[in-house]
Amino acid sequence: MIWNEKIETMDREAVRAIQLERLRETMKRAYRVPFYKERMDKIGMKPEDFKTFEDLQKMPFTVKTDLRDHYPYGLFAEPMENIVRIHASSGTTGKPIVAGYTRNDLENWAECIARLITAAGARRSDIAQISFGYGLFTGALGLHYGLEKIGAAVVPISSGNTERQINLMRDFGSTVLVATPSYAMHMAEVAERMGAMKDIKLRVGLFGAEASTEEMRAKLEEKWGIIATENYGLTEVMGPGVAGECECKKGMHINEDHFFCEIINPETGEVLPEGEQGEMVITTLTKEGMPMIRYRTRDITRLITEKCACGRTSLRMEKCKGRSDDMLIIRGVNVFPSQIESVLLGIKEIGPHYEIEVDRENYMDKIEVKVELIESSLLDNFAELENLRRSIMARLRVVCQLDIPVKLVSPNTLKRFEGKAKRVVDRRKD
Ligand code: DLL
Questions:
Q1: 0.90 surpassed by pTM
Q2: Are 334 and 402 in contact (CB under 8 A)?
């Protein structure tokens, strides 16, 4: 089923025409914001001069620190009387990133979510348990309004208190789960421990807000007996709703009538040809409260132009490989945590929880991966344990081109996460 047949199956030329028309409107709106006005003045362009995407590319990028520098409302394009919602993302350092929404923005947001959750298989007959934390985080309320829009019954349980989550999931007959993949994994373990899996009716997972691998998806699908889909977004441009997978699970369909996406070389800023991997840059096309012009997401992905079997014509973005600022450089070798995850989750003796510790000793980078065993009995057999450890290291060496020491720890000893997982502890930054 397609939520908005007309838009979602539109031919490419028509999509481009809508994007260009909306781009002009967006530049007009952005011109009201001193930060953007100054930038347009500097390159000698007026909002009406932005007639093509090449014109847009004359604008410099907007980056996270620009939002921080204009904290909290300095990039809003509407007076506060027209703002009806404020969200924020805390990030790890500094001031939060703040986003303001007009009433139209909220309607567009619900529409964007309605499309991608319908694509993922959610229906009005579903009971949707939202296990994202409610609050300033865009995930819970974003999904909430979209699910209500399609007519699903929303259970706004928020995150945490996992046993209660499982009890209610069973009692309420939840059929859709909204969570981060890492929390969904933790919930599955708790459900198994409670012996509740046999009474659970979940059929669709709407997962997002953090990077995860195909191996993680396979584990989630197997444990819950669901189809696990992924969706993507960020506070700066809306929250969830930028893109989401259909049931084909071959990349996330972008809501292109609301977002224009470019891929750049993260080191040089150069725009890359279609199909190449790089950092995604997003320009909003309908945001009124806080338009974003060429926002550098730091997320590494690729745009897929081939037609999707589902019939939707939009460009898709590939699963994010990670964030360019999450990439670890260990003794000169680039390693993405997702590469490590893909190796670990393919090994049956170990569980899906891991921790990557990075440190520097005598000017040398040091990395170690802690992984949980599934069976504690293995701890008593030194030879077997050592064989397992060596085989994990060998596989990591093939994928990451690096010797990564592995420490096997007892089941249920590593930290679990109720929101976005924090798997990397990099002490070099201390
Ligand atoms: O995480 C918005 C969101 C909520 C998306 C719920 C999907 C579902 P922020 O807290 O601002 O917003 O974090 C945005 O999270 O730049 C990515 O690095 C990461 N991220 C979000 N979705 C994905 C995904 C929300 N599917 C940042 N895969 C983004 C990989 C993701 N990373």
A1: yes
A2: no
237 lines ligand 1 (CB under 6 A): no
Closest CA to 359 of 327, 379, 392, 331: 331
Q: Cβ(57)–Cβ(290) under 8 Å?
A: no
Contacts of 343 (CB under 8 A, 6+ apart): 392, 395, 396, 399, 400
User: Nearest-CA neighbor of 105 among 244, 245, 284?
Assistant: 284
For the beta carbon of residue 70, count every other beta carbon within 10 angstroms: 16
Q: Do the Cβ atoms of 313 and 307 come closer than 8 Å?
A: yes
Q: 244 CA to middle of ligand 1, Å?
A: 11
> Tell me, what DSSP letter sits at residue 31?
T
Per-residue DSSP letter, 271: B
Name the DSSP class of 274: T
Which residues are registered as beta bridge partners of 28?
Answer: none
pLDDT at 378 (0 to 100): 87
Question: DSSP labels for 402-427?
Answer: S---EEEE-TT-S---SSS---EEEG
How far apart are the C-alpha atoms of 178 and 18, rounded to whole Å?
A: 31
Say if ligand 1 is within 6 A of residue 83 CB.
no
110 contacts: CB under 8 Å, gap ≥ 6: 145, 146, 148, 149
Q: What is the DSSP letter of 62?
A: B
CB-ligand 1 contact for 239 (6 Å cutoff): yes
Q: What is the atom index within ligand 1 of the atom nearest the CA of 298?
A: 16
The 10s digit of each residue's pLDDT in 152-190 is: 999 999 999 999 999 999 999 999 999 999 999 999 999
CB 229 less than 6 A from any atom of ligand 1 = no
Strands of the sheet with 406-409, listed across from one edge: 406-409, 364-373, 350-361, 424-426
The rounded distance, in Å, linking the Cα atoms of 342 and 229 is 17
User: Does 209 sit in the ligand 1 pocket, CB within 6 Å?
Assistant: yes
Q: Which residues does the chain have with pLDDT short of 50?
A: none
SS3 283: strand
Closest CA to 56 of 228, 221, 271, 258: 271
